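Re-running Ring-cleaving dioxygenase to confirm reproducibility after the cluster update. Everything else is unchanged from the original entry.
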Amino acid sequence: MSLRTVGIHHITAFARDPQANVDFYAGVLGLRLVKRTVNFDAPEVYHLYFGNQAGSPGTVITFFPYPTSRKGRVGGGQVGISTFVVPIGALPFWEERLSSYGISATKTSRFSEQYLQFSDDQGLQLEIVERLEGANSEWSFDGVPTEKAIKGLGGAVLFSLDAAKTMSAMENLLGMKKIGEDQEYARFQTSAEMGNLIDVRIADMERGAGGAGTVHHIAWRAKDLEEHEQWQKEVRQSGYEPTEIKDRNYFKAIYFREAGGILFEIASDPPGFANDEAAAFLGEKLMLPSWFEPNRAQIEEKLPPIQVRALEADRQ
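Result of re-run:
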């Protein structure tokens, strides 16, 4: 092992209705819609990215909203829970905000931390935790002040078909450090301030089923394009089968499925979401890669309109 990822780059999940997806993540959770584009492998479907003001690596959750998607089942071979991190003292604010939208949340603890667990409109399992590390988001929307706003991803909980092999990949391939066990979970740490604490459920789990309300893949960070190319070689030498390097316009990507069934991606930090539009206007219009631009009219015709909007009228 010659490389170490510093943490999560992003997490990508399935949804159904694109507007409902925007309403939940931008409207309720107050994240910034930093990019509206399409699934580069299926351009009739949106690919929506939500994060902090810049969509910094470690802050982003993304979605493929397929209106006709089947309902998924959370289980082995998936990210089971996606973790958001907020500033110290912000958890009561989020408990009240979620309640005001009729979203049921449960308090739980793990590794001496308090979590607020809940699901989005499709059943995707989420949680919020307070931590000191990581810069506050500068994005404020609809009553979510910056001192309470979600900073980004705190980490994730992985559900594996073979937890021992997943944990081996995290230590021996990705270079994470195991820092402890707490009842049902083992915890791994990376060097980043966000997206840096990954919990693995120790018990093997029954295979889940992909679909709305489940995670498609988790992406780990490569610091630059040169390191990204090295990661492809490292993954192959470790006995996995990485894809070719794919140009995702905002990062380069390779994918491989680790032995516990979870789809891993290695994504480069550069060039970032200001690659094709000014930082002040991120997410305001549909952005397409150059190879899709000749078909913009046909692509736009198939995509339902979406907007970021305040949801005050929907509160209880």
